[in-house]
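Batch 3, record 17
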Amino acid sequence: MIALAAFRLAAYVRSHRVFQALLLTLALLAILNGSRAPRGAEASVLADGAVLLVPILAWAARSLLDTEPDRQREMSAIQVGGRGREVASGLLAAFATCAGFAALGLLWALLLGMTGAPPPGLLPAGVVLYAISALTGTALGALTSRAILPSPAVSIMALLLGFLAMLLLSATSLYWLTVPLISWMKAANTGALLGLFPQLAAISLGWCLIGLTAYAWLRRRR
Amino acid sequence: MRLSKVTFRYRRRDPLVIEDADAQLAPGDMIELTGVNGAGKSTLLRLLAGLARPSTGTITGRPPVVGFAPDRFPVSQPFTVTAYLRHMSRVRGGGARWEPWIERLNMGHLLGTPLNDLSKGSAHKVGLAQALMAEPGLLILDEPFAGLDADTRDALPSIATEVAARGGIVIASDHQGGLRGLPGLRHWSMVDGHLKEGTSAPPPVPSHVTVAVTVPTGDLARFLTRMREDGYQARRLRTTIAEGATAQDTDEPAAVETPDERTAVEATHGPDRRAPETQETS
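Prediction for the assembled complex:
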């Protein structure tokens, strides 16, 4: 399974598709962290970056999964010993890609986005927040990949609308019905990030798990 | 391995692609699967490989190691032949070795070639190598002889026999009858979604078919090269200049429809292994 994930990562890099998401990530980070935020705004810097990275991470995950031709995906499933392992290795490769970009975002925010060091406790929360961002991107990207949505137009629309739906829903009192992206940002802006962290993290992880399970279920016959 | 009352449809309300397929496969079996286009051969192969699940019925006893060579190898991948096979060997694990198949499939000269640059026959060999590298207990070949050069066409039946002799099951969807003549070969045919086992071999396929193709003269070299790379014997027959100009080497009427210069060529594919002919008769 690890070898198949490595094969897909290698294809993603060697096909140069990786640069599409990398350039977008760099552009977004350069804009977001164009000037250092004042002291006390460290939580906002981390949360805003983690939330705004989600669509790019989803695009990267979708792009990685779509690099492999459909026929090769079938051959890979046979080589690795079953459809389940093939799906799991694809998700692993997609998450590794998203985690790499998320790590870049986190490092950029820490080094260039804030004045001074983050207060105690915020850094571990920031790491988990970026990991959740990577997981959200993986789930959204997988659900809009070609194996699920064969039409490129429908796929990219679903990705963007999915992200917008997450934003809109999480701005309401029904924020728990999705990954609560806006709630993360609001909590960071009001200084309540660490207090609300367990609740928001649990909701986010729950929805990521549901998204990934839905992907695996839909891939049973595809 | 056993298929019991297997039916398959792609979606709930779609018509059945395969109906009530029953079959028993024993270690060492070699099976030739035939049928017209759209009869369900590839679907049956996907079911046997475990790539699709039957809508109803069961497939049991599938060997743990399956090799699958598709009819069209997906060349749109950013790897050379070596890099691809090395990756596939790692994915297989368990000491799967691709190196021995390089010589047997006559593909040593292709190792550094990007997959994208391979001809159809060469790409097909890569597909065969990845299917064979792990000593499969079930080897599934979808049109294995298509586009192969004569040497590899000759080698493939003995490779299939070796897999069967080791206790593997070999099943090949094959329009070209490349496995015919092998002792103990079973014949399956797909007719309108029904799997039938024949007691006798289908009528022999002609060993040679010759076709004439008319191409613009500018495309001639590339066309001949491509045909020869794919294992066909191709040669130039005649050149014709239409619209009042003199035709060269035209014993027969030329099949020319536009007023530019065109060349008729002949292509043959079969076990006759003469050196490619290049009769430049103009």
